[in-house]
Write a structure and sequence with these properties.
The chain has helices spanning 30-39, 67-74, 114-123, 135-140, 206-210, 223-232, 279-296, 317-332, 366-377, 383-406, 454-468, 483-491; strands at 4-10, 15-17, 60-66, 86-90, 107-110, 128-133, 147-152, 161-162, 173-180, 186-192, 197-200, 240-245, 248-256, 266-272, 304-310, 337-346, 360-362, 416-419, 425-433, 438-445, 474-479, 495-504. By secondary structure, the chain is an alpha/beta fold.
């Protein structure tokens, strides 16, 4: 990885320039100038006293500037202050639609997030990167600065532009060198403490992300699947978070969402390297960082965490150990609502489940399905349904279910309302799909007709619809606490394939 160095001159009270942006009161002369020309020749603009030999030193081959730094560097001598370096100019106020008046075409204008840009830049081949300033740019890049070289001049100004302008967040550096010059200037070098960074990834981190492998008996996302779904937008660099130290990934969190979604829906894979002393603590810190970022980006509902486990996992000490630290991490990160679900599968060898023929199935409008959802939600044994009803009321919970399934890849034309021979609504059959499989979707029987075995007819109808649509595998899920539904799946030939633990953030009920 290339190093980012912030080399800058300051006053005794920490200002790099006056309120007007000028720094001509910080002299460049004597033995300080000689040392800088010898050791950091690339930092002297071409119009400066004793212009550097572009081939000398080569400590840096790139410079990062804001508009004030660019103007100060070029002065009146031209439009390219550092032609011997690759020059990048950052500013929120610039028009990046084309070339900018007064800016040399050799100076590349950089729009967008400087942090993501610099992380990608550091991952490229090349020499060091010099951060010319100013305060706002340095403040945004403080976590990316590897070395801080400060010329502290024996003058105080009382006000001006600070070394960094950023929200309060202490960032530690270690003193590695300090010299005093005849003018009273001290040249002090600091390096970033060897500490961990928690951050979202960029495209430049792809190799780091995909190199992680999980050797525990839990579900995880392999590199091929990650890369394939990354192309489709279901995984994204900004939804992928890592804990990194010295270029090594110590923890990784992969959040997943719909290809067209603005925010992720679920944490699919959480991994912390076994060398970490407290895996749960680092896992919780990484998950918290991601959830906080998603909330700040406007996510109305925080993504949940799905942990897939083999059937009978409680009998496997390795699976129990892998689950324990992940559970502790999820709870510590605020995902305190937990439900255990069974993942079931139907394949053709099980045969089509028999139907009693007591129910007929008809199409219906969204409004009719919404009404049946409302009725089914009353007294439901499904944990998610009960939670949503308690949180937002029956009406909103039903609407959320309808909206969710309308957004799934399954066909709306598959939906059916179940009716008794006299036309009375008995329930609904809602076959659906994910990006991976056809699934049962949602089924239910209205409260007044429960206990009559109608659930078997509804499930048989869903299975029939999916098979006629070409399904060779149909998946389903149900809570382990919902024994009647689990029994219905067993009767229909669905076998338990996996167990899934789902942690989610508790949500406060809306004010009435």
């Amino acid at each position: 990885m290339r190093q980012l160095t912030y080399y800058v001159g300051t006053t005794l009270d920490g200002f790099v320039a006056g309120p007007d942006g000028k720094s001509d009161f910080l002299p460049f002369e004597g033995d300080l100038a000689a040392a800088r020309l010898a050791e950091y020749p690339e930092t002297v603009p071409v119009h400066g006293s004793g212009a550097p030999n572009p081939t000398a030193g080569r400590r840096f081959d790139t410079v990062l500037m804001d508009r004030a730094g660019y103007e100060s560097g070029r002065a009146a001598e031209g439009t390219s202050p550092y032609p011997h370096l690759t020059q990048y100019l950052f500013s929120d106020t610039l028009d990046f639609s084309g070339t900018l008046d007064g800016v040399d075409p050799a100076v590349e204008l950089v729009p967008g997030d400087p942090v993501a840009f610099v992380r990608a830049l550091k991952a490229r081949d090349g020499a060091g990167i010099w951060l010319r300033g100013g305060a706002d740019l340095a403040g945004q890049l403080i976590e990316e600065i590897d070395e801080l070289v400060v010329e502290r001049h024996p003058v105080a100004t009382g006000s001006g532009i600070p070394l960094f302008r950023a929200p309060f967040r202490p960032t530690a550096f270690t003193l590695t060198d300090s010299r005093v010059f005849s003018s009273g200037v001290t040249l002090t070098t600091y390096t970033k403490e060897n500490r961990m960074q928690l951050r979202p990834t960029t495209e430049a981190d792809l190799e780091l992300v995909t190199a992680v492998t999980v050797d525990e008996p839990v579900g995880w996302i392999e590199a091929d699947r990650y890369l394939e779904e990354l192309k489709e937008g279901m995984y994204r660099p900004e939804w992928t978070w890592i804990a990194e130290q010295d270029g090594r990934v110590l923890a990784r969190a992969l959040w997943w969402g719909h290809a067209t979604g603005e925010h992720p829906l679920a944490l699919d894979c959480l991994y912390v390297d076994p060398s970490v002393e407290d895996r749960a603590a680092l896992g919780a810190e990484l998950v918290r960082a991601g959830l906080r970022a998603f909330a700040e980006q406007g996510a109305a509902k925080l993504p949940l965490y799905n942990l897939t486990l083999p059937q009978g996992w409680r009998e496997d000490p390795a699976a129990v150990a892998a689950t324990d630290w992940r559970r502790d991490a999820a709870l510590a990160a605020g995902l305190t609502d937990v439900v255990e679900r069974l993942r079931l599968e139907w394949t053709p060898d099980a045969g089509l489940p028999a139907s009693s023929g007591r129910l007929t199935f008809t199409e219906g409008t969204d409004e009719e399905f919404l009404d049946v959802f409302r009725r089914i939600a009353e007294g439901s044994l499904d944990g998610e349904t009960r939670r949503n009803v308690a949180l937002m009321g029956v009406e909103a919970a039903a609407q959320e279910e309808v909206d969710f399934y309308l957004g799934c890849p399954g066909e709306r034309s598959w939906w059916r309302i179940a009716r008794t021979p006299d036309g009375e609504v008995a329930g609904l059959a809602l076959p659906s799909a994910t990006p991976y499989n056809r699934n049962v979707g949602y089924l239910g029987v209205v409260p007044e007709l429960r206990g009559r075995g109608y659930v078997d007819d509804v499930l048989a109808e869903i299975t029939r619809v999916q098979v006629e649509a070409g399904a060779e595998l149909i998946t389903a899920t149900t809570d382990t606490d919902n024994a009647p539904m689990a029994a219905a799946f067993a009767r229909a030939g669905y076998r338990v394939a996996q167990t899934r633990l789902v942690w989610s953030a508790p949500e406060a009920a809306p004010a009435s």
